[in-house]
Batch of 2 targets.
Target 1
Amino acid sequence: MQGKMIEKAKELLQNGTVNRVLGWKTGEFDYDITPAVFNTAEELERDFVYNTLAAANLSKYLVKESKKDGKVLVFLKPCDSYSFQQLVKEHRVIRENVYIVGIECFGKTDVEKIKAKGLNGISKIIDNESSYNVQTIYGDDVEVKKCDVMLERCETCKSKKIVIFDELLADNGEVVEDCNRFDMVAKLEAMTPEERFAFWQNELSRCIRCNACRNVCPACTCEKCVFDNDNSGVAQKAASNSFEENMFHIIRAFHVAGRCTDCGECSRVCPQGIPLHLLNRKFIKDINEFYGDYQAGADMDTRPPLVNYNMDDVEPSIVKDREV
């Protein structure tokens, strides 16, 4: 796939369809694949990378890239395409300044799961189709099955369908039925209020307020975040108490409710391993139950339930009286 993508990008640069390409390249380490902009065929040949470690959702970067001169080519995986379409729907990107090539995805790897197997000081991860050979600076050379180290969002993938594109490099997939992505939410709902509070207090207490979750989230595109307001008393600093810990994440979850596409980027980039996507999934599950199934970013026409009024909308008393 990587070779086909490079050739397509070079073709579109050469014929003037686009003047730059948004893709991935190797970061500080060989396994650290990071978003990057390429301006020439030479840069693409030298640096462009796409493999099972290229997990980053590129749609957020188009908020700024689409406002620059010229047209940008972007390669979107199925889950990325939902995020991009939601951004178009909210008028956060300029659609005509983006050329989308849809690419298939069979799941991405969670490097943190590899490290959790006791493999510290990783120097190289060699791809062997269904497995990796993981080498470390301590002389380890261990085979790890890809299926054992897949990102959680890929284990519960909601869709293989690319919902918005200008052309495809592979056959389009379908929405995944019964993906079990709400299983952990159901387990949390089955807890007592005290148990749930303890669960989230334990998780959120590890937050260092690095803002990585907010910065990577395609639904967080405010030009000025309330948590960057110096007058708020909580701007750009680690939480001083449990109230501040909870406030940041709960407010952010409410902010993206009904707009979150469940791309899982918040949890992927969290350096503390906090399962932040579970907050968003709880809201998605509730919205589905209260208003009917709704998937943010699935189309350009359906109005989000939280900004649409119907006479048969759920009443506050029904929400309040629920057991969970």
Target 2
Amino acid sequence: MQMQKLNQVIQMFAVDGSVLSAEEYGTGHINRTHLIEMDQCGQRKRYILQQINTEVFKDVDKLMENIIGVTGYLSKKLTEQGGDPDRETLRVIPTRNAGSYYRDGEKCYRMYPFIEDAVSYDAVKRPEDFYESAKAFGRFQSLLLAYPAHTLHETIPDFHNTKKRFAAFCAAVEADLCGRAASVQPEIAFVMEREPEMSVLTDLLKQKKLPLRVTHNDTKLNNVLLDRQTGAGLCVIDLDTVMPGLSVHDFGDAVRFGANTAAEDEQDIGKVSLDLSLYETYVSGYLDGCRGSLTKKELEMLPMGAKLMTMECGMRFLTDYLSGDTYFRIHRKQHNLDRCRTQFALTADMEHKWTQMQEIVQKQAKKDMR
């Protein structure tokens, strides 16, 4: 974006001063993000300016209503508990006409203060960082325990409805638009063999055996800011997919992403496995952050959350491969197939280590209750 255009957009927000610099920032694939530095009466202050991806998030009013509601609630809870809401949650800067975002034609923008002295990582480099990210997501869950989850909008409907994802997969197999189904019969069979598990979590929700929670739905390591000085989990970011959902989905997706011994698109599936040490690290951090707020059934279903989120992700990659690679960006032929095979290999390893996964949760849950 040209500097002149950036200046025009920034002037629509309730910030004073002149722009000193602007640069693209972060590794996100959805929204376009700039780090803005401004001179405010001789003091330099930095902000995050994001252009919201309206192809993915079509109802920006509902999206921002979710974010305003959740961040406002978090700020209040953190203040009550003696925390620092300026560093421990995002704060939306209003526009000059008191809006939550600025619309310029079809483009929509929002602005946050930049949280200084914080860092995020795209991959697990130290177990301590994985623990702190888990604790931050668990604390996010705990702080929002009393928030009325049913009042939140679904920014992406049925995002983690594994049963519907399975139905979409079956339709893609049946249509076979690119004539690829014959070459991936083992992968198709892998999914079909696990059909009975696809509705386990959604059925428990319908039966009210699992509670509806405020969930983040994109619990990757890089969506937590860590304090640069102490390494402690500081702030959960990227709140676009905050919706009503299941805590076990949030837990499971983080394990899928962070406790895999290989990259998400590793072509040598022999390198793929569940790192039980990292899994235990995440369980420990998540339960520490949740502070006893999870129910007995939620604790019991944590391993299933990890397995189903991994299965769902692999199924989505395979669905896209069968449909002609129209959703996920690819960088080589069969990229989505490689991604799918990695997720299925991780799923199979989880099944192999199932008893250990359950025992780790039980051990950490007992420790959490002491």
